[in-house]
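Per-residue structure
===
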Amino acid sequence: MSKKIDERTPKEMQKLIEEIIASIKDEYTEVVNYVENDLLKKLEILNSPEWITNPYSGKKCLLDPVQVALYDYIIGAEIMLNMCYSQELSKKYSRAKLYFRNKWANEYMTLLD
């Protein structure tokens, strides 16, 4: 039986925290690898930046072509998930959204949050 959190020594807590951080880093590395080495290669990336408007707030952002392609993918995946749930698409959508949020936080907050 494992110890309750409040019964762990400071050294045990430190080890647990380090394991959690390592796990999160590994998961994010997988997200980056998937988006950069797989997803972005499958998307159509045009040559010009575009102004994108948040349909709810009316706020706008100028996105570069890679950002536009990924934004369009996220919006399209969201629409498809609302029509017919797919666990595989849900995982890809979540990865794309996490990548966008971490790479372009201001744009994410303006357009997708």
